[in-house]
Specification:
mainly alpha, 5 helices, globular
């Protein structure tokens, strides 16, 4: 598991991969959304991580925010997903 406090130092460097996931398919965005860390979620979304990434249970970060009752994160991710989809539907990367 990636400690959330190291995200700000890991991601901006040339070797960091913000979309990297653990053995269960959870990315940094999955962890931040599930735990309600709004600054991390905002940072990762603005950095351009894959908002549509699925874990091994086929949950997106938005799903995990909803499961864990993180309403602020849920609203933020919903707005980010809508904005990404409206900008260019062909560029939306669903993996």
């Amino acid at each position: 598991m990636i400690p959330l406090c190291t995200l700000t130092t890991l991601v901006p460097c040339s070797r960091g991969d913000p979309d990297k996931c653990d053995n269960y398919g959870n990315s940094a965005l999955h962890f931040a959304a599930a735990r309600g860390h709004m600054p991390c979620v905002s940072f990762l979304v603005n950095f351009g991580v894959n908002l549509w990434a699925l874990d091994i249970d086929f949950h997106t970060p938005k799903d995990l925010a909803a499961i864990n009752n993180k309403e602020q994160i849920l609203r933020f991710l919903d707005a980010a997903l809508s904005k990404e989809e409206i900008q260019d539907r062909k560029k939306v990367n669903v993996k």
